[in-house]
Amino acid sequence: MRLFFVKDFLDLVFPRNCLLCGRSLYDHENNLCSICKGTLPVTSYHLRPTDNDLCDKVKGLSTVGMVMAYLKFTKGGNSQKLLHQLKYRNKPQLAKELGSLYGKILNENGYSKCWDVIVPVPLHPLKQSRRGYNQSEYFGLGLSEALSLKLENSLQRRKFTETQTQKSRLERMFNMDDVFEVSNYSTLSGKSILLVDDVMTTGATLCACANVLLGNGAKNVDLVTIAAGG
């Protein structure tokens, strides 16, 4: 009885609302209500992981295998609102829930045995200190639980890079030269790696990371992001 009273009190003082629509959440809901989860712009990239427009983006930049994204990015849409929550509203558990949701889809479609380890794209220590967490890592943690895979922070970012929003595809790739390095070689040798990030635009960051992984003993690298545009 006392636990229920404490919970009711906390819900009153700190109401739990859906991060998209603002509705009050039920006990079984975490960050998103069931209605909003049901209307997320989920992609079908997992049905053709080696033959889609995301694969075309990275062609010539890296020899990665599968390329997939959970949500279709649209400006002003729910996917952009979720990414905004992750980057500016300190919502690590939202990133983890999105990873869990997509992990279940991948699991149901036979991907559970495709990889040996999940590696997130790292943030620069200064940026991670400001944000408080790495959203890509938490997305990876959700995937790791759903797919029963280990997550390893095997990469580190050694250079701080400016925002790439206004840069061309080629400029972004040049901007990524020597940005990443391996921090744990033992987790890579001969392994099939699932490299994860929050969003894919041109694919330059992901390809730079994939190239470092492949150059340091990874057997193969596949890419998965929370969202990606067409």
UniProtKB/TrEMBL annotation:
Q: Where is the Phosphoribosyltransferase domain?
A: 91-228
Q: Which InterPro entries match?
A: ComF/GntX_DNA_util-trans, DZR_2, PRTase-like, PRTase_dom
Q: Which portions of this protein are annotated as coiled-coil regions?
A: none
Record domain Double zinc ribbon: where: 9-42
| CDD domains, sorted | PRTases_typeI (cd06223)
SUPFAM superfamilies with a match to the protein in the record: PRTase-like
Sequence similarity: Belongs to the ComF/GntX family.
From the Swiss-Prot or TrEMBL record, give the protein name. ComF family protein
